[in-house]
Amino acid sequence: MNINAAEKQNIVNSVESWLRDCVLGLSLCPYARVPFARGEVRTAVYEASQLADGIKQEIQLLQKQPATTETTLLVITNGLEQFLDFNDCVGDIEQLLHDEALDAEFQLAGFHPAYLFGGEAVDDASHYTNRAPYPIVQLLRVTSVAKAVDSGETLSVPERNIKTLRALDKSRLHALFPWVEHS
């Protein structure tokens, strides 16, 4: 099933709303604000069946545009609705980066509407740190991640994010993440 240009634009708009309202609005990623404001965050939509080619295209684009595109969010449609399938796919992409000797240049972050951390209760708010309106694989530049790590703040970010999300009442959490199935 191919999605048309209007559907793709609706998906991009939804992802950008998530970035503004959740990621930036809750300060879940302190490193996202500047690239987002500068227009250096690319959102690309691919059907699951096109993902292998899409990954390669997006890597080539990032390699050609180091000054204008900081990171790419690959939004996956028509497949990978199940979190475990998505998680397996992220592992496959990591293996591809390794096999192609690109893991020194790029690394991944994964986001999914049903994201779950092992060892946490299914209804724990901590899962929302990685919940997005669609399955998303983010291609990050290793050099950018290294700069963030060198700043010394990265170790506290996950714990702070969990505290932030756990402090929200359920109605606020549901309003920010309306695509998540709430029990």
What is the element string, with H for helices and E for strands? HHEHEHEEHHH
When the domains are counted, the total is 1
Question: How large, in whole angstroms, is the Cα Rg?
Answer: 16 Å
Could you list the spans in which at least 5 consecutive residues all have pLDDT below 50?
none
- Share in β-strands: 5-15%
Please provide the count of β strands.
Answer: 4
* Overall average residue pLDDT: 92
Shape: globular
Q: Give the structural class.
A: alpha+beta
Structure description:
- The protein has 183 residues and is α+β, with helices and mostly antiparallel strands.
- The protein is 45% helix and 14% strand.
- Strands 1-2-4-3 form a four-stranded mixed β-sheet, with helices on both faces.
- Helix 3 (51-64) links the parallel strand 1 and strand 2 (71-77).
Topology summary:
Elements: H1 5-24, H2 33-37, E1 41-47, H3 51-64, E2 71-77, H4 83-99, E3 106-111, E4 136-141, H5 142-150, H6 157-167, H7 170-176
Parallel strand pairs: 1-2
Antiparallel strand pairs: 2-4, 3-4
